[in-house]
Amino acid sequence: MGRVTEPNQVLPVPPADLPATLGALRAAGHHYRTVKQELRDNLLARLRAGGDRFPGIVGYDDTVLPEVERALLAGHDMVLLGERGQGKTRLIRSLVALLDEWTPVIAGSVLNEHPMHPLTPASRALAAEAGDDLPVNWLHRSMRYGEKLATPDTSVGDLIGDVDPIRIAQGRTLGDPETIHFGLVPRTNRGIFAVNELPDLAERIQVALLNVLEERDIQVRGYQLRLPLDLLLVASANPEDYTNRGRIITPLKDRFGAEIHTHYPLGLELELALIRQEADLVADVPEHVLEVLARFARAVRDSPSVDQRSGVSARFAIAAAETVAAAALRRSGLLAADATTDGVREETPVARVGDAVSVTSTLRGKVEFESGEDGREVEILAHLLRTATADTFRARLAGLDLSGFTALVDDGRVVETGELVASADLLRQVGTVPGLAKALDRLGLGDAPTPEQAAAGVEFVLEGLHLTRRLGKDVTESGRTVYGGRG
């Protein structure tokens, strides 16, 4: 892939008052800056203003971002090392916001050449002939970013360029730069170019990047083009690939000015913040359910049964939250027909902790397990989910008197819940329970929760009491959960 644009994206239109010729550009006081000078100046301006330098990047404020800022201020190309799902690509793409919103280019230039700094012989000749009348176009920063996912079939022509046989057939000689069809890297001149998963790039192709990083020129089919490319090159890689298998050639590693290690969220609050920011939830997911999922993701990441070299992507917790929300939406849809028939209010979709059970099967493909755990994947995930639920229960409701819930079943009564049990039915079974209001408040459901929110809180309390061995639990053949008896 090349420049990243959204489908049907409408590109920004430059303001009408921007200079349209080189003479007008000079008269406006414009000065040529390299991309790295531009990034440095704009980053310094944000540092002095005290604003958010990298919007949308969660959990890196005190670790990764200072290293990125030092690399940018030093003018270094950089490689980001980290396991999958640590936001490396998101971080790289956020660098575009540090470019000037609009930058001048020679009209028609394939390489985005600056009017005051033409590169190709054709542009230099045009600039000499036109003088101050050289036409100028303006390029938005969103078009100054190029990206390539490194794959084994990537060629030098994709990245750097190749001889265009059509232009040869038109009578041009092989030594003529006009015969070159430029690849992604030179076409991102005066911008930021990213190579994702660099170790997957064949070693002979990596050699093609050596001159780009150091000498800033390119070679195509044995012809050396003295084109001082102006760009910031950023790559991402998995540390396992980078350090152990040696798939990034040593000269290329040496040419990166900064090697920055990324990581998963260091604390539970950061994990939760990431889920809240990234998850596209189709239903209300209460905070205590999100906390269970965040703890679950961290437990999976730390489990000895999981391949630590692969890691567990932050997308795991995000997808889990979206799956749980979808389960709540499905419940509301299936219960809608009954609500219409019985003349009761329709169920509003609110996720419950029991909805998280489906995550263990639907998301197991996102986790790489150790070889000795074959066939136990769902069992391992189910155990970790129960552990995360119990930990959340203790953290949220520690010290609270929940004897009112255990008293419900002292006389042999049971409480039935499950995927398709309506909130009204669940609350009817529970009735008035001493301590319920305090429990719901501790769970962040407020003073006046809806019936669906209250049902979510009640189910969480019952499950927590079961997991702490204070309440029995059974699952019926129809898949419903029955709480009753002592654990």
Structure description:
- It is a single chain.
- This protein has helices spanning 22-27, 35-49, 64-74, 88-94, 121-130, 156-159, 165-169, 184-187, 203-206, 210-213, 239-244, 250-255, 268-278, 287-302, 314-342, 359-362, 377-397, 403-407, 423-430, 436-442, 451-467, and strands at residues 78-81, 102-106, 136-140, 145-149, 161-163, 180-182, 191-196, 218-220, 223-225, 231-237, 258-261, 415-417, 473-475, 481-483.
- It has a five-stranded parallel beta sheet with strand order 4-7-10-1-11. It has a three-stranded antiparallel beta sheet with strand order 12-14-13. Strands 2-3 form a two-stranded antiparallel sheet.
- Mean pLDDT is 87; it is low at 1-7.
- With 487 residues, it is α/β, with parallel strands linked by helices.
- The relative contact order is 0.09.
- 41% of the residues lie in helices and 12% in strands.
- β13 (473-475) and β14 (481-483) form a beta hairpin.
- α13 crosses α14, α14 runs antiparallel to α15 and α14 (287-302) crosses α17.
- The radius of gyration is 29 Å and the shape is elongated.
- The protein is built from 21 helices and 14 strands.
Task: Please supply descriptive tags for the structure shown above.
487 residues, alpha/beta, five-stranded parallel sheet, three-stranded antiparallel sheet, 14 strands, 41% helix, 12% strand, elongated
Q: Percentage of helical residues?
A: 40-55%
Unreliable stretches (pLDDT < 50, length at least 5) are 1-7
Strand content: 5-15%
The computed structural class is: alpha/beta
Number of continuous helical runs: 21
Shape: elongated
Q: Please report the total strand number as a whole number.
A: 14
* Strand arrangement across the biggest beta sheet: 4-7-10-1-11
Mean pLDDT: 87
- Rounded to an integer in angstroms, the radius of gyration calculated over CA atoms is 29 Å
The main sheet comes to: 5 strands, parallel
